[in-house]
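dumping the sequnces here before i forget
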Amino acid sequence: EAQVTQNPRYLITVTGKKLTVTCSQNMNHEYMSWYRQDPGLGLRQIYYSMNVEVTDKGDVPEGYKVSRKEKRNFPLILESPSPNQTSLYFCASSRDRGGTEAFFGQGTRLTVV
Amino acid sequence: AQSVTQLDSQVPVFEEAPVELRCNYSSSVSVYLFWYVQYPNQGLQLLLKYLSGSTLVKGINGFEAEFNKSQTSFHLRKPSVHISDTAEYFCAVLPGRRALTFGSGTRLQVQP
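..and the predicted 3d for all of it:
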C-alpha cells in the first residue's frame, strides 16, 4: 500500500529540547516536503527536497532543519523548539514537483510548552 | 507571487442539499489547480485536479470543479452531500515549477 508514515502522531515537549519528526514514503518518490497547518492559515510549506541531498527552504523555514540522506526518509528537526512552533505538521511526497498528486502523512500534532 | 483565497471558512449544509465551495487564486503564471479533503484526524487526500484540457473536472466521491480562467476561480461542487462529506476542504495552486500554495480551508458541516 502506498503511504507516507510520520512519527510520532502526537508530541508534547518543552521549550529548547531538540526533537525530530520522522517521515518515510514507500513510493520511490523524488519530491518530499514538510508543511505546518495552523487555524485560518491553511498549510504552509516549511522545507522541501527535490531528491537525495537536495533540500531548500519553503515559505516558513525559520527554526527548522531537514535532511535527505536516503530517498525514502525526510526527517524534520527542531533544534530548539519554541511555543510558536506548536502546530500540526504534515509530510508529503510526490513523484515530481509539478502536476502530480501529493500523498500526505497522517500528521504530527506538536505542542511546545 | 501567487495566492489562494477560500472565501468561506465554514459552510453548513443539510444532507442531500447541493454545495459549492469557492476558491479564487491569483498568479502571474499558468497554474495547476487542486482540491484536497482532510477528514478529522487524517492527512490530506486529493479530491481532483486541473492540469489542462476540459475545464470541468470530476473527482472522487461525486465532487466536481470548474476552472474559470477569466474569473481565476476553481469552485468545488457536489449536487447532493452526505454526512460523510463533513470535512475540511483545501484549494491549492501549483504555479509553474514552484511549490503547492494552499488556501486557508473551508470546513463543510453536513447536518442531518
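The radius of gyration of chain A is 13 Å.
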